[in-house]
Amino acid sequence: MEKSHFELVILGAGPAGLTAGLYASRSRIDHILIEKGAPGGQVLTTDWVDNYPGFPDGISGFDLMDKMTAHAKRFDVNIMTKEVASVELSDPAVKRIVFADGSSLTCEALIICTGASPNKLGIPGEAELAGKGVSYCGTCDAPFYRNMHVAVIGGGDTAVEEADYLTRFASKVTIIHRRDELRAIKILQETAFANEKIDYIWNSRVTSIEGDKEVERLQLVDNDGNSSTLEVQGVFILIGITPNNEMLPLDQLKADKWGFIPTDNETLTSIPGVYAAGDIRSKLMRQVVNACGEGANSVVAAEHYLKTRSEQ
Question: Looking at the whole model, is its pTM more than 0.85?
């Protein structure tokens, strides 16, 4: 008979989840790590990771997550491949995970590492050139575009802030926005407008991304229907990210207005014994390096919670 109760359940096998699984296994916590697909999360689709410590020459996102998965398996992390339909947290003592096939299991502590996904334009060339000039993270990929002309699509805080950051490397940054003014807060706008390396294309949207092997140009159309072409070597699509939270009870977890899960410094959510780590967590920076740290931290906190419960 398949086991149906664990001390600890970890949802999601990205960097945070795999690290949590590694720490849980090494601590001999009765655990299971649940992932609906291949371990690795969004990093699997990242062409190159150049800012993760220990890899001075960089490493592909696929290879990095392959190494993390192998590391977890070396310590016999218990990984289950199954799709979660819902998470029930009404009982403070027992958390229930319900699967899409109708089965379920329970646990005493839960770590949520379900991540987030970048919003996409859904236009021709976007998927084909992802990682080949199409990026969703300026902080991650800016150094690859030294002395190049790149475009940033978006007009919110993240788009404007990362456009300014990109000018440390790129020779020119063109912000493309569908409105006639930015939505970013005023101080970010002021910084961007004062930056001579940034220019703007207003009231326009990108209709396709083109290039043989890498990004070479963008096709645009303005609000009056006029078409134009912009020659660039890279495009950063910064129109927000969506948390992978469809299976979570957001009211109980007191999700923020974007659907991310707030926690304290130890990754504890508003519910005792429930933790959040990685991109699903409400925070400023979403990088592999801090996801791993949060995954480790959440297991230490969960272990303390489980020990306290056993002593009561």
Answer: no
Question: Which CATH number describes the domain made up of 5-117+241-310?
Answer: 3.50.50.60
Active-site option among 107, 113, 137, 292: 137
Say what the pLDDT of residue 289 is: 95
Residue 17's closest CA among 82, 112, 117, 95? 112
**Architecture category of domain 120-237 in CATH:** 3-Layer(bba) Sandwich (3.50)
Q: 152-199: per-residue pLDDT in tens?
A: 999 998 899 999 999 999 999 999 999 999 999 999 999 999 999 999
All structural domains of the chain with their residue ranges: 5-117+241-310, 120-237
- The b/e string for 169-197 (b: 16+ C-beta within 10 A; e otherwise) is bbebbbbbbbeeebebeeebbeebeeeeb
Q: 93 falls in which pLDDT band (50, 70, 90)?
A: confident
Residue 140 annotated to the active site: yes
- 276 strand-pairing partners: 112
The reply to whether domains 5-117+241-310 and 120-237 share a CATH topology is: yes
Q: Is 176 helix (H, G, I), strand (E, B) or coil?
A: strand
- Catalytic entry in 107, 140, 279, 292: 140
CA 212 vs CA 52, 110, 129, 135, 229: distances in Å: 30, 46, 9, 17, 16
Among candidate residues 30, 47, 107, 141, the one labeled active-site is: 141
137 is known as an active-site residue: yes
Give residue 207's pLDDT. 98
